[in-house]
Specification:
GMP Synthetase, Chain A, domain 3, 9-stranded mixed sheet, about 30% helix, 6-stranded antiparallel sheet, 27 strands, alpha/beta, 16 helices
């Protein structure tokens, strides 16, 4: 019944001619102005933002930005750190009808300069601690914070399909692409409430990511706020091992993180006492079965995974009350139209192909900024091609096989690195593993497994372990011990970099 009511509200909102993403996110909280919207927590201290305080900060920021001479539709580049300033500025810009562009604080000045040249933003919101080229039009953090107490701006209402925000994705080529999203993209996130989160208004959602990560911005902040729930974010510098005590202390009912955070939190090996926790959420990359099972044993709770991308957020997932088959990600969320496509058309059940989502999905991007041809190339008829490989069974559940450019070729067979990684990650002495295909000499490529652990393992033992669990053509021919695996800002293993680093030494 609750899911039916939510879908009815979603359809009603889609038909509204006047819409604003920020107003929509903060609307439910107006019924409980003194309820905590956000808790930034350490073990001894919690910085509390009520819905009244948060809404005032957002609308005051909108007033201040407009007072700087900015006009609806202007692009605003965000160079802010891991603090509440980030979501407040983001929603403040949207409230004013501006187009915010969140960027990772780790980007260098050179990388930011390329973004500035491409987007030509009207202004940059800049924390002096975050790299940004000199001699660019900036509003610094002190001035930005001072805006919060200004009279609240009116929400800038308009067509739900108008440009709302831009985010950057590396894509399959490794070259960053600017992804344009409409204000209506927030409406698609409602499909996650029942199709992934199991989210309720009385929940306390703890997200382990940084404020300036889009996974945190969506799952950790805006989605709980849309329902009038409470977002709990660990203070900067909190280690993964400190997260379980914080979840217990602040009553987290749902925990969201990348798989690597779960793995680090489990390293102590002890039972985790989390009486309030109902379940966990995972996204960013595939979680290994070993980590999922260890979390379940330690906490007594399940972890539900989701698949998505910058161009369409998450749209395939498991969810409470919806059993997921072994090895599968889950199923398309209710209301999502998803297919597995080959160049010839829809793949038959059980056959691999490219995961695709219909162009009618409200969460699908408007396109790549300044790149109409690149946008058009991602479609096969009415279907957006994600660039990820998967298999859908007769029941609609989807097993993820990896990125198109991550798939390996072994003796003519296509092999998913995820399948090999899932097997090796269960071997004692391996903490994390990344598998890719590398060139060992001209014309000769082999499957290589790069792993971390307390010490290098015997290659013969590794080969014997793989032999018992993988077909011959799937078994790595090369094992390399590393102190750390290269990962992006979102925690995903960079298999392309593993390959490049290894081949550069040959």
């Amino acid at each position: 019944m609750l899911a039916t009511l939510r879908r009815a509200r979603y359809r009603k909102d889609m038909l509204k001619p006047e819409f604003n993403l920020a107003e929509y996110v903060l609307r439910a909280g107006q019924d409980t102005p003194e309820k905590p919207a956000l808790l930034v927590v350490s073990y001894d201290l919690a910085d509390e933002w009520t819905y009244a305080r948060l809404t005032q900060a957002v609308r005051g920021t909108a007033t201040g930005l407009l007072a700087q001479g900015l006009a609806p539709g202007d692009i605003v580049l965000m160079r802010l750190g891991n603090t509440p300033d980030f979501p407040i500025a983001y929603l403040g810009a949207l409230a004013a009808g501006l187009v915010p562009v969140p960027t990772a604080a780790a980007l260098t000045e050179t990388e930011v300069a390329k973004i500035i040249a491409s987007l030509n933003p009207a202004v940059i919101l800049n924390d002096p601690e975050v790299p940004c080229p000199a001699n660019t039009p900036c509003i610094d953090l002190v001035d930005l914070r001072a805006m919060r107490n200004l009279p609240p701006a009116a929400w800038h209402m308009g067509d739900p399909d108008r440009l709302g925000y831009i985010i950057y994705t590396s894509g399959t080529s490794g070259t960053p692409s600017a992804v344009m999203h409409a204000h209506r993209a927030i409406l698609a996130r409602r499909m996650m409430f029942d199709g992934w989160y199991g989210l309720r208004a009385d929940d306390r959602m703890m997200h382990a990511g940084a404020f300036n990560w889009t996974y945190t911005l969506g799952t950790g902040l805006m989605d709980p706020w849309t329902l009038g729930a409470t977002a709990v974010i660990p203070a900067p510098g909190t280690s993964a091992g400190d997260l379980p005590p914080l979840m217990d202390r602040y009553g987290a009912t749902i925990f969201a993180a990348a798989p690597g955070v779960y793995r680090q939190a489990l390293k102590s090996g002890r039972t985790l006492t989390l009486p309030h926790l109902r379940h966990g959420l995972s996204a960013g990359e595939k979680m290994s079965p070993a980590v999922r099972e260890s979390w379940n044993r330690a906490t007594g709770t399940a972890v539900y995974e989701a698949f998505g991308m910058s161009e369409c957020s998450t749209f395939i997932s498991g969810a409470p009350g919806c059993p997921v088959k072994d090895g599968a990600l889950g199923a398309p969320q209710p209301g999502r139209r998803v297919q597995i496509l080959t160049p010839e058309g829809t793949a038959t059940p059980g056959s691999p192909g490219t995961i695709a989502i219909h162009r009618s999905d409200p969460g699908l991007m408007l396109g790549y900024f300044g790149a109409p041809q690149e946008t058009a190339a991602r479609f096969q008829g009415d279907w957006f091609l994600t660039g990820d490989q998967g298999v859908m069974d007769a029941d609609g559940q989807i097993t993820y096989l990896g990125r198109n450019d991550d798939m390996m070729n072994a003796g003519g067979f296509r092999v998913s690195p995820l399948e090999v990684e899932a097997v090796l990650s269960a071997m004692p002495g391996i903490d994390a593993v990344g598998v890719t295909e590398v060139a060992v000499k001209d014309g000769v490529r082999v499957i290589a497994a790069f792993y971390t652990g307390p010490a290098p393992l015997d290659d013969t033992a590794l080969a014997a372990y793989a032999k018992d669990k993988l077909a011959r053509y799937k078994q790595p021919r090369l094992y390399v011990h590393l102190t750390a695996l290269p990962a992006g800002a979102n925690g995903k293993i960079l298999r392309r970099q593993l390959r490049a680093d290894y081949e550069a030494l040959k």
